[in-house]
Amino acid sequence: MVDYINKKLVTGMAPKRAQNSNKMTFGKVLNIAGSANYRGAAFLSSLSALRSGAGYVTLAAVKEVVDSVSCMTPDLVYLTLKSNNNGGIAEDNIINDLNSYNVISFGCGISTDESVKTFLINLLSHISPSQMLVIDADGINLLSSSKCNIPSKNAIITPHPKELSRLLNVSTEEVNMNREKYARITSQTYDCITVLKGHGTIVTNGDKIYVNKSGNSALAKAGTGDVLTGAIAGLLAQKMDPFNAAILGVYLHGLAGDIASSYLTQYGVLASDVVDYLPFAFNQVLTSE
C-alpha cells in the first residue's frame, strides 16, 4: 500500500525548539562533500543543514573547496582534508573527529576517484551503528562500485534513478517503470531508508512506502539534490526518527521549490534559492499545527 506525503501528514512532525538551549542542543552534522569541480555541492548541502535547524555544521573538504565555500558563508566550521591530483579527497584519517557528530553526510560533489573510494571504505568501517548517516550522489556511486555494507541502522540514501540502477545492477529504464518496486528492494537489500528522487519522490524503509506531493519542475536543476541531503541531515541532527526525517525533509524541499517558483517562476529557481526558501516552507508547516 502506498501513502502520500502531504501537509496533513507532516503537520506536527517538525522537531520542537527548546528555548533553554544552545547550539549543541540541536545537533552536529559532519558534511563530507565537494571536490575541485563541484564546490557548489559542498556549499548547498552544508548550508541547507543549518537552514533545517542543525545547531552546528562542519564541512570536511579539500582545501580548494574549503577556500571557496568559506568565502561564500561565515556560518560553517571547516575541516580541511588532503587532496589528490584531481582535486578530490585523498585517503585521509578523520576518524578521531567522527565521534563528536551525531550525523554524518557524505557524497555531494565528492567525485568517484579511486582515492575517494578508499576514503569511503575507511570511513564506513568506523561509523558507529548509532550515528545517523546520509549518503548521496557520488557517495552512492562509490557504494555501488565498492560493494561496502552500510554500517548504520539509521542510514538514509538519496539516489536518483540512474544511481539506484547502479546499486541494483538494473537499467535506469527499468527503475523508472517500477519506481516503488525498486526503491523498496533497495531498502531491503541495503537495510536502509531509500529516498528515490524524481517527480513524486519515494521514501521507503522497505516496508512502508510514501510518495511526495510537493515540488515541481523548478527542482529539476543541478544542485537541488544537494539541498535535499542537507535538509535531511539537519533534521536528523535534531534527533528526529530517520524515517520521519526523510519524509519531512522531502516534503519541505519540494515545498521550498513551490514557494520559490511562485516568485521566480519554475524556470528561474536556482538550487541556492531552494536553500533560502526552506524557512518559508517550515513556516507553512509550522503554522498549520
The CATH homology group name? Ribokinase
CATH fold descriptor: UDP-N-acetylmuramoyl-L-alanine:D-glutamate ligase
Biggest β-sheet: count, sense, barrel? 10 strands, mixed
What CATH architecture label applies?
3-Layer(aba) Sandwich
- In helices, the fraction of residues equals 40-55%
**Ends: how far apart?**
27 Å
Enumerate the strands of the largest sheet in spatial order, edge to edge or round the barrel.
Answer: 1-10-9-8-7-6-5-2-3-4
What structural class results from the helix and strand content? alpha/beta
Explain what the structure shows.
A ten-stranded mixed sheet has the order 1-10-9-8-7-6-5-2-3-4. The chain is α/β, with parallel strands linked by helices and about 290 residues long. The longest helix is centred in the last third of the chain and has 27 residues. A hairpin with a 5-residue loop joins strand 8 and strand 9. It contains twelve helices and ten strands. Helix 2 packs across helix 3 and helix 10 crosses helix 12. The protein has one domain: Ribokinase (UDP-N-acetylmuramoyl-L-alanine:D-glutamate ligase, 3-Layer(aba) Sandwich), CATH 3.40.1190. The model has no long low-confidence stretch (mean pLDDT about 95). It is about 45% helix and about 15% strand.
